[in-house]
Design goal:
This protein is of the alpha/beta class. The chain folds into two domains: 4-233, Vaccinia Virus protein VP39 (Rossmann fold); 289-325. It is 45% helix and 15% strand. The protein has helices at 10-13, 16-24, 26-43, 60-66, 85-93, 138-152, 168-180, 210-213, 225-236, 243-255, 265-271, 291-324, and strands at residues 50-54, 77-82, 99-102, 116-122, 153-163, 184-190, 198-204, 222-224. An eight-stranded mixed sheet has the order 3-2-1-4-5-7-6-8, sandwiched between helices. It is elongated. Mean pLDDT is 81; it is low at 221-230.
Length: 325
């Protein structure tokens, strides 16, 4: 069966007919409800929160957010954004409680920094991996989305994005874009190695280990941007007092013309090269000129320059006369 995102862009695919079919299908509603409840479980919100629903469609997930029981941390207030005007029209017909915005998530999340406590996205972000025209860059759209999503969430906020990756490349592209934006990220799979597998990208603002921040993530592979950068820095960091540090310092001293101590025998054993001494530069006694002598030297310099200029002028005139004849 073909994937919807392989046929048309989302704003064209979800026209009035498809939007109504999607909203009224009992099968789709049940699947959407299960995935939304799973996303809420991973968010683990203990009190009523302000949530962004990315790709809200006709408000099926938003209805669940509005109806979370108080003992489960609800009800939640939500704002949704979607690129399909037909989907949003269905939500208005159904009189859902949340506010909604017609917007392309590939152009970014257009809200003030730190606006939301959390975010969810059900079956939406895989659309960002498609390029309908040659001037569309999936990498740029993913970067814009995750950068602005990160900014719109409060410090310590979390986001759960359920998506359907077409292949391992799309999965990696999406998770890498989230990590580069600064998120601590983990990927969780429900019903792996089956046709009904569900993939959840769990994100935490400010990096950090999402397995501790999110319940149910203890056995999940985690991608932590801060930990990765620290490890990379340690790998390439120059240890003070080490061989590379010493050789660099010696090179700096030699460049300044200072006398550098010969390389030790230990270096000869390690490198197999005999120690070499830098030849000392011959020192010349400084020549001190009397002020009057310096003036004479300057005058002589100017006189020589004037003679050279006169010679060039004479030669030039002779050439002109020769050519005239």
């Amino acid at each position: 069966m073909s994937r919807p995102e392989d046929n048309l862009p989302p704003d064209l695919f979800y026209n009035d007919v498809e939007s109504r079919k999607y909203t009224t299908s009992s099968r789709i509603r049940n699947i959407q409800a299960d995935m939304t409840h799973r996303a809420l479980e991973l968010l683990d919100l203990r009190e009523p929160s302000f949530i962004l629903d990315v790709g809200c469609g006709s408000g099926l997930s938003g209805e669940i957010l509005s109806n979370v029981e108080p003992e489960e941390g609800g009800p939640h207030t939500w704002v949704g954004m979607d690129i399909s005007s037909s989907m949003l029209a269905q939500a208005l017909e159904r009189d859902v409680e949340g506010d909604m915005l017609l917007a392309d998530i590939g152009q970014g999340v257009p809200f003030r920094p730190g606006s939301f406590d959390a975010a969810i996205s059900i079956s939406a972000i895989q659309w960002l991996c498609n390029a309908e025209t040659s001037d569309v860059s999936p990498e740029s759209r993913l970067k814009r989305f995750f950068d602005t999503l990160y900014a719109s969430l409060k410090r310590g906020g979390k986001a759960v994005c359920q998506f359907y990756p077409k292949n391992a490349q799309q999965r990696s592209m999406i998770s890498n874009a989230a990590i580069k934006a600064g998120f601590g990220a983990g990927i969780l799979e429900d019903d792996p190695e089956t046709k009904s597998v569900k993939v959840y990208l769990v994100l935490s603002v400010g990096g950090g280990d999402v397995t501790g921040a999110v319940s149910g993530m203890q056995d999940v592979d985690v991608y932590d941007s801060r930990r990765r950068e620290r490890k990379r820095g340690k790998e390439f960091a120059e240890k003070k007092g080490g061989k590379a540090w010493i050789m660099r310092k010696k090179g700096q001293m030699e460049a300044k013309g200072k006398v550098v101590k010969a390389t030790t025998q230990k270096h000869e054993v390690m490198t197999g090269q005999p120690p070499t001494e830098r030849p000392k530069a011959e020192s010349k006694p400084a020549q001190i000129l009397h002020p009057r002598e310096r003036e004479c030297d300057v005058a002589a310099m100017y006189f020589q320059a004037a003679e050279r200029e006169t010679e060039r002028s004479r030669s030039s005139r002779e050439q002109c006369f020769a050519s005239a004849k």
